[in-house]
Amino acid sequence: MIQTFMENISITDLVDIFTVAFLLYLIFLEFKKTKSVFVLAGIIISGTIYLIANIFGLRLLATLVQGFFAIILLAIVNIFPRNIGLRINQKNEQKE
Protein backbone atom coordinates (compact mmCIF):
# COMPACT_ATOMS: atom_id res chain seq x y z
CA MET A 1 0.00 0.00 0.00
CA ILE A 2 2.74 2.48 0.93
CA GLN A 3 4.76 1.42 -2.10
CA THR A 4 1.77 2.09 -4.38
CA PHE A 5 1.29 5.48 -2.76
CA MET A 6 4.94 6.38 -3.26
CA GLU A 7 4.80 5.34 -6.92
CA ASN A 8 1.82 7.61 -7.59
CA ILE A 9 3.18 10.74 -5.90
CA SER A 10 5.15 13.22 -7.98
CA ILE A 11 7.38 16.20 -7.26
CA THR A 12 4.47 18.50 -8.11
CA ASP A 13 2.34 16.78 -5.46
CA LEU A 14 5.07 17.27 -2.85
CA VAL A 15 5.48 20.95 -3.74
CA ASP A 16 1.70 21.36 -3.52
CA ILE A 17 1.56 19.69 -0.09
CA PHE A 18 4.44 21.73 1.32
CA THR A 19 3.04 24.99 -0.07
CA VAL A 20 -0.35 24.40 1.51
CA ALA A 21 1.28 23.36 4.78
CA PHE A 22 3.40 26.51 4.82
CA LEU A 23 0.42 28.74 4.09
CA LEU A 24 -1.60 27.08 6.85
CA TYR A 25 1.33 27.56 9.22
CA LEU A 26 1.43 31.29 8.41
CA ILE A 27 -2.31 31.59 8.93
CA PHE A 28 -2.11 29.81 12.29
CA LEU A 29 0.73 32.11 13.36
CA GLU A 30 -1.34 35.16 12.44
CA PHE A 31 -4.31 33.91 14.43
CA LYS A 32 -2.07 33.20 17.40
CA LYS A 33 -0.57 36.72 17.28
CA THR A 34 -3.97 38.40 17.15
CA LYS A 35 -5.49 36.07 19.74
CA SER A 36 -8.53 35.43 17.56
CA VAL A 37 -8.87 31.77 18.41
CA PHE A 38 -12.66 31.88 18.10
CA VAL A 39 -12.46 32.87 14.44
CA LEU A 40 -10.00 30.05 13.82
CA ALA A 41 -12.26 27.60 15.65
CA GLY A 42 -15.19 28.67 13.46
CA ILE A 43 -13.15 28.13 10.32
CA ILE A 44 -12.06 24.67 11.48
CA ILE A 45 -15.63 23.69 12.39
CA SER A 46 -16.89 24.94 9.02
CA GLY A 47 -14.17 23.00 7.24
CA THR A 48 -15.06 19.85 9.13
CA ILE A 49 -18.74 20.26 8.25
CA TYR A 50 -17.77 20.78 4.61
CA LEU A 51 -15.66 17.61 4.54
CA ILE A 52 -18.39 15.55 6.20
CA ALA A 53 -20.97 16.93 3.76
CA ASN A 54 -18.76 15.95 0.81
CA ILE A 55 -18.09 12.48 2.19
CA PHE A 56 -21.79 11.75 2.66
CA GLY A 57 -22.83 13.42 -0.60
CA LEU A 58 -24.83 16.24 1.00
CA ARG A 59 -24.56 18.61 -1.94
CA LEU A 60 -26.80 21.39 -0.60
CA LEU A 61 -24.96 21.59 2.71
CA ALA A 62 -21.58 21.45 0.96
CA THR A 63 -22.62 24.28 -1.37
CA LEU A 64 -23.84 26.41 1.53
CA VAL A 65 -20.65 25.90 3.53
CA GLN A 66 -18.57 26.59 0.42
CA GLY A 67 -20.36 29.93 0.05
CA PHE A 68 -19.70 30.56 3.72
CA PHE A 69 -15.96 30.17 3.07
CA ALA A 70 -16.10 33.03 0.58
CA ILE A 71 -17.74 35.20 3.24
CA ILE A 72 -15.08 34.13 5.76
CA LEU A 73 -12.36 35.42 3.43
CA LEU A 74 -14.05 38.80 3.27
CA ALA A 75 -14.53 38.79 7.04
CA ILE A 76 -10.85 38.06 7.63
CA VAL A 77 -9.89 41.07 5.53
CA ASN A 78 -12.29 43.18 7.62
CA ILE A 79 -11.22 41.72 10.97
CA PHE A 80 -7.48 42.04 10.37
CA PRO A 81 -7.07 45.13 8.14
CA ARG A 82 -4.17 46.53 10.16
CA ASN A 83 -2.27 43.26 10.15
CA ILE A 84 -2.77 42.80 6.42
CA GLY A 85 -1.73 46.40 5.78
CA LEU A 86 1.33 46.02 7.97
CA ARG A 87 2.38 42.88 6.12
CA ILE A 88 1.98 44.58 2.74
CA ASN A 89 3.94 47.63 3.92
CA GLN A 90 6.73 45.43 5.30
CA LYS A 91 7.00 43.60 1.98
CA ASN A 92 7.14 46.90 0.07
CA GLU A 93 9.83 48.30 2.37
CA GLN A 94 11.93 45.15 1.94
CA LYS A 95 11.79 45.50 -1.86
CA GLU A 96 13.07 49.09 -1.76
Quick overview:
The chain is 90% helix and 0% strand. With 96 residues, it is mostly helical.
Put simply, the count of helices is: 5
Spatial extent as radius of gyration: 17 Å
- The percent range for strand residues is under 5%
What would the principal axes of the Cα set say about the shape? Answer: flat
Low-confidence stretches: none
Terminal CA distance: 51 Å
User: What is the ordering of alpha helices and beta strands?
Assistant: HHHHH
Largest sheet: none
**Residue-averaged pLDDT:** 77
Tally the beta strands.
0
Supply the helix-strand structural class: mainly alpha
Number of domains in the coordinates? Answer: 2
Helix content: over 70%
Folded structure, characterized:
The structure is a single chain. This protein is mainly α and about 100 residues long. It has 2 domains: about 1-35; about 35-95, no CATH class. Helix content is about 90%, strand content about 0%. Helix 3 runs antiparallel to helix 4 (about 60-80). The longest helix is centred in the first third of the chain and has 24 residues, at about 10-35. The mean pLDDT is about 75.
Write the layout of secondary structure elements.
Elements: H1 2-8, H2 11-34, H3 37-55, H4 59-79, H5 81-95
Helix pairs in contact: 3-4
How would you describe this structure in keywords?
96 residues; mainly alpha; 2 domains; 5 helices; 90% helix; flat
